[in-house]
Automatic annotation (TrEMBL):
The keyword Iron-sulfur applies. GO terms for molecular function: 2 iron, 2 sulfur cluster binding; iron ion binding; oxidoreductase activity. It comes from Acetobacter estunensis. This is Rieske 2Fe-2S domain-containing protein. Its cofactor is Fe cation. Keywords: 2Fe-2S, Iron, Iron-sulfur, Metal-binding, Oxidoreductase. PANTHER family: CHOLINE MONOOXYGENASE, CHLOROPLASTIC. InterPro entries: Rieske_2Fe-2S (IPR017941), Rieske_2Fe-2S_sf (IPR036922), Ring_hydroxy_dOase_asu_C_dom (IPR015879), Rng_hydr_dOase-A (IPR001663).
Length: 418
């Protein structure tokens, strides 16, 4: 950042008022966006996909994080590895974004060839004194947390990812991510800043009037409500949810299924939160009829009514794990006013489309919800760009997790700026 931009950002961070939305430049300013990419997305653990994306040796996936491009692959020893997608010759990008199968990593420019371990194997016309050993691909830190893949572009990644893994792997293990496959993947470009995407995800204040599909399996009041704000019917529904949460948590924990809330969204460098939430009606899955979308259960789960395990990570993901399928979400910034939201639906690796599950039924709730959220993010971005915009107060009852995201972001930016 330039000196002037640095000073401006420092002032904005210093005067941020807790319990209120961020000021407009945090959503609109190109210099702040670049700072976000430098201080947040280049220094923290970023969720990029699942181990089933690279299920077999030779499978590769390329994910772009801002200007950086990362190759994630599984080598012949079944180890998951990650490298910068930059040839060590003259810097060409070697593999386009997306998934592929490779025997080696070959630069299309001059055919420098790297093994799946990143070592340079072949470089023609370089002379007798050329040392291939010091020209391997630059490594990127990668950590699988129960089958969820996180990368960090920093030379010294935050080591508290190990604490997140210690806490989360018992929650994730019953769903056995490594023995699933990606049934469907969707990329949606939202016309808004990445922080608006995350803020929208971190509350359900907006769910009732905006998500008619999602609020069939999920309780709109599951993340809080103001006393006196509900009519008698809504209050009965909220009380029913609270009682269902208590009884389900007791039963699930008794069956060895971790369920209780763990919240470190704003007190860790690698912020995260998890809780197993009840599903309404039949209680089986996040579908329009609340019943399982796939007839083959995940892992060793025998009880169909295991709710939905929710898992949030700072700065770029959220996930829902049911007994029959998993939905994961990756947020990748494009520029100050555009954001990629990548959604994956996972089913048991042996499940056959049209036999064990119907793809439309599997995906329709979150396909609809994603588009509804994208529309909300777009009007929020339009508002942030309006000269009349000023930060409004968060609801103390329904937007606590939004405040935790904002507090985490402000804290990490201040730490980066010293």
């Amino acid at each position: 950042m330039s000196g002037q931009s640095h000073e401006s950002l420092t002032n904005l961070l210093a005067r941020r008022k807790p319990g209120y939305a961020l000021e407009a430049p945090f959503y609109t300013d190109d210099a702040i966006f670049e700072a976000d990419m430098d201080y947040i997305f280049s220094r923290h653990w970023i969720y990029v996909g699942v181990e089933p994306d690279i299920a077999e040796p030779g499978d590769a996936m390329v994910v772009n994080i801002g200007k950086a491009s990362v190759i994630i692959t599984r080598d012949d020893d079944d180890q998951v590895r990650a490298f910068h997608n930059v040839c060590r010759h003259r810097g060409a990008r070697m593999i386009p974004e997306g998934k592929t199968m490779i025997g080696n990593i070959v630069c299309p420019y001059h055919s420098w060839t790297y093994g799946l371990d990143g070592d340079l194997k072949f470089a023609e016309h370089m002379g007798e004194d050329f040392d291939r050993a010091c020209r391997g691909l630059k490594k990127v830190a990668i950590r699988s947390v129960g089958g969820l893949l996180f990368v960090c572009l920093a030379k010294n990644p935050p080591d508290d990812v190990e604490e997140m893994a210690r806490v989360m792997e018992p929650y994730l293990a019953p769903h056995d991510i490594r023995n699933t496959r990606v049934a469907f993947e969707s990329d949606l470009i939202e016309n808004g800043n990445w922080k608006l995407t995350l803020e929208n995800n971190r509350e359900c204040y907006h769910c009732g009037p905006n998500h008619p599909e999602l609020t069939i399996p999920l309780f709109a009041y599951g993340f809080g409500y103001a006393p006196g704000a509900l009519d008698e019917e809504q209050l009965r529904d909220a009380e029913r949810y609270a009682e269902l949460s208590r009884t389900c948590h007791t039963r699930w924990e008794g069956e060895g299924l971790p369920s209780q809330e763990v919240d470190h969204l704003d007190d860790r460098v690698t912020g995260f939160r998890t809780e197993r939430l009840p599903i309404d009606q039949s209680g089986e899955s996040q579908t329009l009829d609340t019943k399982a979308a796939c007839r083959i259960p995940l892992g060793a789960l025998k009880d169909k009514v295991v709710g939905g395990l929710s898992f949030w990570t700072q700065p770029n993901s959220w996930h829902h794990f049911m007994g029959d399928h998993i939905v994961t979400f990756t947020v990748l910034p494009i520029d100050a006013s555009h954001t990629l939201v990548r959604t994956k639906w996972l089913v048991h690796k042996d499940a056959v489309e049209g036999v064990d599950y119907d793809l439309q039924r599997l995906t329709e709730v979150w396909q609809a919800t994603n588009q509804q959220d994208a529309d909300l993010v777009e009007i929020s971005q339009q508002g942030a760009e309006d000269p009349a915009f000023e930060p409004g107060p968060y609801s103390p009852y329904t937007e606590g997790l939004v405040e935790k995201f904002a507090a985490w972001y402000i804290g990490r930016m201040k730490a980066a700026l010293g």
